[in-house]
Request: fold
Amino acid sequence: MGAKLNRHITRKVFWLLCIIIVAYSLLPLISFQFAKPAEKSNNNQVNVEQIEKNEGSYFSFIVFGDSHNGLFTNDASTLKLLWHMNREDRFRKVPIDFVVSVGDVSLDGSRHDFKAWKKIQNLTKYPVIAAIGNHDDRELFKEFCGDNQFAFVNRNSYFIVVDNADDAPDVEWLEERLKDGQRYAHTFVIMHKPPCDPYQQEWYNIDNAPWAYNLRKLLAKYHVDMVFAGHKHMFRCQKFDGVDYVTTGGGGMLIEVPESDGGYLHYIRVMVNHDYVTYEIRKVSPPLWLHITYYLAKEALYWARNWYGSGYIFGKNKTIIEPKVQGLNDQEYWFERK
Ligand SMILES: [Fe+2]
Reply:
């Protein structure tokens, strides 16, 4: 009788502990509801002015993207990322000058979403810069974040924030900025949509767009060090003509890509040391409650699909599907930039 009661109590205590641990991971989300948003005047222009006062050639900055704030799942993930970002300076080795978002700061461009983003900004201890994404309403972006296209100097480096929320950017404007950037040791370009496909098993199909090809040639011509983009909710680094293209879209939005292919929450920390540029990926696990309600299920789905295949037992899968775009092999843009 006593042993049975003991087992019963142990089981109850175990489940109670589980509930407490999971509930504990929800706490930041609760306090976030009462957090104060940053002032609208705390925008791109104001932060750039502050950044441009920095001097020296040894610094760090943080890049992330696609936080899509305004949905509780995304806010919870961004808050966890933020906790890690705000600890990046704890070793006092190198100043962290700013944080930049590569766009899609809002879930879908509503005023409510932008207010959530401004709360995230207010909780960030470094100056925040934001690029515009395709989900960010233009008028509201201007109201909450300021300029959508600009360039600035930080110490020995030149940063160009490009608006390509609608695909092709303003190339003439960009080329002028790239010329300006030649006076500095490094040039970094920040845009929302990568001019390449970070993931081939995906519908995002920009690799065969002339603007993307030409843009890569242009960025190589001016020896850009690194290009940061998002749009795809994953991490991937690719190199074209000596330029690193980092897709960093793991800033909060629920991720669909398998973890083994880069589908995880993360941010990038870049370190500039005079002539050298290095970066590290900071992979952050989701909040526990989100891990058990979404991310484990996502991985399980991919695991099951991989294990079972997609009808490989009975299906022959022999139909050849032509690309949607015709004439890919006989267009001049594949060979030289006009
Ligand atoms: Fe996005």
